[in-house]
Amino acid sequence: MSLSRSRACALAAALVLCIPVAHAAKPADAATLPAPDAALQAAINGSWRAEANVARDAWRHPGQTLAFFGIRPDMTVVEITPGGGWYSEILAPYLRDQGRYIAAVVDPQAVPEGRGRDYQQRARQGLEKKFAEAPAQFGKAEVVAYDPAAPTFGPAGSADMVLTFRNVHNWRSAGQAEGMFKGFHEVLKPGGVLGVVEHRAAADVPADDRSGYVGQAQVIALAEAAGFRLDASSEVNANPRDSKDHPNGVWTLPPSNNHAEVDRAKYQAIGESDRMTLRFVKE
After folding, report:
1. Sorting pLDDT into bands at 50, 70 and 90, what band is 34?
2. Contact yes or no for 199/273 (Cβ under 8 A)
3. Which of 128, 105, 129 is closest to 117 using CA atoms?
4. Whole-angstrom Cα distance, residue 265 to residue 278?
5. pLDDT reading at 141 higher than 50
6. Are 91 and 77 in contact (CB under 8 A)?
7. Does 237 have pLDDT greater than 90?
8. What are phi and psi of 146, to 5 degrees?
9. In the β-sheet with 159-165, what is the strand arrangement from edge to edge?
10. What pairs with residue 143 in β-bridges?
């Protein structure tokens, strides 16, 4: 087992509650913190995962994050804009036999012609290629395309869980965040869970902020306005070394490393961004 794979299997820092007093939520007691079930840990340890992705487990804590959200192998789970499929490598095999994994991607035809459409087309094709090349793991994974101006992610009340990782800043800057959260609420069953991980700003930021960070209270407000209740918050993806004032925003930090080479040691010492981890429930 490689060093990075060993780190991936290690128990991450304990979860603690960290939410504004005005938002009631269940305490997150470290003594009762759920661990990844055996099937989830097996997916995290899967030999099909890219080594570069495994190396990031130390920052993304997939087992503890997904266990905190309450995932089970018999769920229907919709992941919003999975990008290159970092979490797909875990979720699709985990849900393959008993549940459903649905990757919701932007419909390229819903985007104006040009660089934006080309980007979304490449993203969709790349994910579909990844799935097609490993049918043993991804043969039952589904891809649905949505229009970000009027997003729907499946039949109303059809999903047990919706997950989104580091996307909210993009939707806010594009004026799409309110519609996206309403779409999450619509596709979820009553009692369904919305799990959000996002780069955390030190305080509220303007909608057109380009740092990549969002205020935690702002994300909570978006979800509550869509009809969700904040159920719990976790510090599993926190990074107190992140000062959140970098010249190129969150992309200054690993893994983007958008900085001068002379500053590499500085930013490697910080590591990846400080992130909020929030669990919401549709009542």
Report:
1. confident
2. yes
3. 105
4. 31
5. yes
6. yes
7. yes
8. -130, 155
9. 142-146, 100-106, 76-80, 159-165, 188-199, 275-282, 228-234
10. 103
Which of 2-6, 33-37, 74-78, 95-99 is the least confident region? 2-6
The pLDDT of 257-266, averaged and rounded, is 96
- How far is CA 61 from its chain centroid? 11
Average pLDDT over residues 81-98: 97
What sections of 189-242 are H helices per DSSP? 216-225
- Dist CA 205 CA 167 (whole Å): 15
Nearest Cα to 215, choosing from 264, 172, 263?
Answer: 172
Contacts (Cβ under 8 Å, ≥6 apart) of 30: 14, 15, 16
**pTM of structure:** 0.89
- Radius of gyration, alpha carbons of the chain: 18
Helix or strand (DSSP H, E) at 47: none
Residue type, 26: K
pLDDT of residue 247: 96
The strand ranges marked E within the chain are: 76-80, 100-106, 142-146, 159-165, 188-199, 228-234, 275-282
- Residue that the structure tokens 């702002």 belong to: 218
d(CA 280, CA 179) in angstroms, rounded, equals: 17
